[in-house]
């Protein structure tokens, strides 16, 4: 059975999204805790509360992308190991995606290079969301430093 190195590479790249998810999750939990603390102590300004809410919202959206990227990583790895059965496995995958996930029929039959571009676009969105989340956190930290 042959292994498709292109699909293995894409799967490996997509698995990097789990590290981003860990970074984002830590910041999301911290923002949630700080937001609740500020509300409970009645010491949070509106700007602080909105910043923490934005950090949590960005974290949740990033989590959605992280789940999609992780699913794609698993699917690409499984398909990379399909060998000569790749066309049949691809058809079965398209049928399963249409049945269980509701992927439109016009999305089936795409080439694996098209699927790779789509999956890597999801990873780039995840990276962007994580970067924006950390940038907002850094700006909050800088703002708090200068307010003191």
How would you sum up this structure, described in words?
With 148 residues, this protein is mostly helical. Helix content is 82%, strand content 0%. It contains five helices and no strands.
Average pLDDT taken over every residue: 92
How far apart lie the N and C ends? 64 Å
Structural classification: mainly alpha
Number of helices: 5
Poorly predicted spans: none
- Give the percentage of residues in beta strands: under 5%
Give helix and strand order, one letter per element, not per position. Answer: HHHHH
Major sheet size, sense and barrel closure: none
Radius of gyration: 20 Å
Portion of residues within helices: over 70%
- Structure summary, number of beta strands: 0
Overall 3D geometry?
elongated
Task: Label this structure with key terms.
148 residues; single chain; mainly alpha; 5 helices
Summarize the model shown.
The chain is an all-alpha fold and 148 residues long.
Compile the SSE list and pairings.
Elements: H1 5-15, H2 17-40, H3 46-80, H4 86-101, H5 112-147
Helix pairs in contact: 1-3, 1-5, 2-3, 2-5, 3-5
């Amino acid at each position: 059975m042959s292994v498709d190195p292109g699909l293995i590479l894409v799967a490996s790249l997509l698995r990097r999204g789990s590290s981003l998810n860990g970074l984002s999750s830590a910041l999301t939990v911290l923002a949630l805790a700080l937001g609740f603390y500020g509300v409970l102590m009645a010491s949070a300004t509106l700007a602080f509360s909105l910043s923490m809410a934005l950090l949590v919202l960005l974290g949740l959206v990033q989590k959605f992308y992280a789940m999609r990227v992780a699913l794609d990583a698993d699917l690409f790895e499984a398909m990379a190991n399909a060998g000569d059965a790749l066309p049949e496995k691809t058809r079965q995958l398209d049928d399963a995606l249409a049945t269980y996930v509701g992927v439109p029929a016009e999305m089936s039959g795409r080439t694996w290079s098209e699927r790779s571009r789509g999956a890597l676009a999801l990873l780039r969105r995840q990276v962007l969301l994580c970067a924006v989340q950390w940038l907002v956190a850094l700006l909050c930290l800088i703002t708090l430093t200068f307010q003191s």
